[in-house]
Specification:
The complex is a heterodimer of chains A (271) and B (315). Chain A is 37% helix and 28% strand. Chain A has 271 residues and is α/β, with parallel strands linked by helices. Chain B has 315 residues and is mostly helical. Chain B has one domain: Orthogonal Bundle (ABC transporter involved in vitamin B12 uptake, BtuC). The chains are: A alpha/beta (271), B mainly alpha (315). Chain B: Keywords: Cell membrane, Membrane, Transmembrane, Transmembrane helix, Transport.
């Protein structure tokens, strides 16, 4: 399933966030959205998820305008892993993952079966079947993220949107969750668009990096080509070096120091 | 996994088995003999309707509280804290005091409760910020209590009758009231049950619900309508019964139950509280006639349970 974004504008009140983002994501791609805090990457993800309405511009899902689709139609095509899942007292893993069937079955179709085949399959595929009857609040951060990915899998969509899936996890669980995303993408032939905070994660796991600055796409391409010291300076405001990780053949960023606001605005004028 | 399901069924059966126990306790609590034509007539005309009133109103409040806590994501959300219950009681009182409906009209009380409950709920909903729900709820309740007192001040002669609605009591309802309330409450509980998945999907938040395919505003509108209708149904029968709608949902969540568990537990709780009220009333007054209003028992017991919950469940 492809996503076509055309000259998207969005502002929170009078504060412009996106100033004409155009981007096409093809079926099966793994795209990382990167940029500084407040650059609009999460906003872009929420617009694509249909949770915000753009002030102008369009988003097409496989040729259908997003705004012409109902919430359930969107949810059958696209699953979203938000930054956080508010706690629900007593909610078990199975109860949560089962909710993935809502878009397909509707409220009445959800009444009878305590567990569905897609629930069991999703639990197995994400390696959390043994946690199925645990209460969600008692799980560790890494387990929680796996369970939330199980929910997305149970939704049985072709597109997966992720908003910082590895945030607040230790190194081991960061790698575990992102590796799982990569495996799921292969197993289910998913199109993945993920906001990622860590540049090294973006370079290692995504095939394409889209860097946002000042509400537009500043750089877009293969991480091996896009990740440069110039990008570090312009998009992230740091002076640093980029080296090649020989084991994986992917770039690694070595930030050295933060640039001053003054030198940042110089970069802006230079383009 | 299968074992868990079977265990759940056993637990469910155990709760249903409590129903005849509570019913028997309720019937026996007044201490009146069950033999003799007069006693049997009293039982049939007063005792049984009183038991059914408690079961129905309790079930309605239990489900209303369960629905509110699920969609407002606040463990303190309850009919009495969201303006719905005070509004419904004020509606009934206003209708009675102003003489819009006769005191014993079942339909009139229900309509008045629905209008009042909807106004109270709408006033609450217009405040939007559910984080401060309890503060707003208390504000709303105080405001409505003020109006209620004002109404009473103009009609001091009817104070005794009004007190029944203010404190909450299941006494004095007869078959006619039940025949109206039964359809209303059973219908809305059925709708709540049919909306179980909507409640579940709404519980983890608006973004979650929207991404799973449920427009959160529409889902919440359905849920709040159900909660208002059920609270009004309970208020039209029993007035301002407090704490059932607050405490029952906590127990339901602990049992990992849903709407049906809330129905059963709500009914059991209020019927049990009323059995206790009758028993305590008899012990205190030494006569069969004077009873303790049920609302007193639910308020006292509910407050104790709430303190227990608050100590065990941080936020």
């Amino acid at each position: 399933m492809s996503i076509a974004i055309d000259s998207l504008h969005f502002s929170y009140g009078s504060q412009p966030v996106l100033n004409g983002v155009s981007l096409t994501v093809e079926q099966g791609e793994f795209v990382a959205l990167v940029g500084m805090n407040g650059c609009g990457k999460s906003t872009l993800l929420r617009l694509v998820a249909g949770l915000l309405t753009p002030s102008s511009g369009s988003i097409m899902l496989d040729g259908d305008p997003l705004r012409s689709l109902s919430r359930r139609q969107v949810a059958r095509r696209m699953a979203v892993l938000h930054q956080t899942l508010p706690p629900v007292p007593g909610l078990t893993v199975r109860q949560l993952v089962r909710q993935g069937g809502y878009a397909h079955r509707g409220p009445l179709g959800m009444l009878w079966e305590a567990s569905t085949s897609e629930t069991d399959e999703a639990l197995a595929l994400t390696g959390v079947a043994h946690l199925a009857d645990r209460v969600l609040d008692t799980l560790s951060g890494g387990e929680r993220q796996r369970v939330r990915l199980a929910l997305a899998v149970a939704q049985n969509t072709r597109v997966l949107l992720l908003d910082e899936p590895a945030a607040h996890l230790d190194v081991r669980h960061q790698l575990e969750v992102l590796t799982l995303v990569r495996e799921l993408r292969q197993a289910r032939d998913l199109t993945v668009v993920s906001v990622l905070h860590e540049l090294d994660h973006a370079a290692r796991f995504a095939e394409r990096v889209v860097a946002l600055r000042e509400g537009v796409v500043w750089a877009d391409g293969d991480p091996r080509e896009v990740m440069t010291p110039a990008l570090l300076a312009e998009v992230f405001g740091v002076a640093g070096r980029v080296v090649v990780d020989e084991l994986h053949g992917t770039p690694r960023c070595l930030p050295d120091h933060a640039l001053s606001d003054h030198s940042l605005s110089d970069l802006s004028m230079g383009g | 996994m299968k074992a868990t399901h079977r265990w759940g069924a056993v637990r469910g059966a155990a709760w249903i088995a409590l129903l005849p126990v509570v019913a028997a306790a309720h019937v026996l609590a007044p201490g009146r003999p069950l033999t003799g034509a007069l006693n049997q007539r009293i039982l049939w005309e007063l005792g049984v309707p009183r038991l059914l009133t408690a079961l129905l109103a309790g079930a309605a409040l239990g489900v209303a509280g369960y629905v509110l806590q699920a969609v407002l994501r606040n463990p303190m959300a309850a009919p009495e804290f969201t303006g719905v219950n005070p509004g419904a009681v004020l509606g009934v009182l206003a209708a009675l005091t102003l003489g819009v409906v006769p005191a014993d009209s079942a339909v009139g009380a229900l309509l008045a409760a629905v209008v009042g409950g909807a106004l109270g709920g709408a006033a609450f909903a217009s405040m939007r910020d559910t984080a401060n729900l309890v503060v707003y709820g208390l504000l709303g309740s105080a405001l409505l209590a003020g109006f209620t007192t004002m109404l009473l001040a103009y009609q001091p002669g009817r104070f005794g009758n009004a007190l029944r609605w203010l404190i909450g009591s299941v006494e004095g309802r007869v078959w006619e009231h039940l025949s109206v309330a039964w359809w209303w409450i059973a219908g809305w509980i059925a709708l709540a049950w049919l909306s179980s998945a909507v409640l579940a999907v709404l519980s983890p938040g608006d973004d979650h619900a929207a991404s799973l395919g449920l427009p959160p505003v529409a889902g919440r509108a359905v849920a709040l309508t159900v909660a208002i209708a059920l609270t009004a149904g309970a208020a039209s029968l029993a007035g301002a019964i407090a704490f059932v709608g607050l405490v029952v949902p906590h127990a339901v969540r602990r049992l990992r139950g849903g709407v049906l568990t809330a129905t059963l537990l709500g009914g059991l709780t209020l019927a049990g509280a009323d059995a206790l009220a009758q028993f305590a009333g008899r012990a205190l007054a030494g006569t069969q006639r004077l009873g303790l209003p049920t609302g007193v028992v639910t308020a006292l017991a509910g407050a104790a349970v709430l303190v227990y919950i608050a100590r065990k469940e941080p936020a």
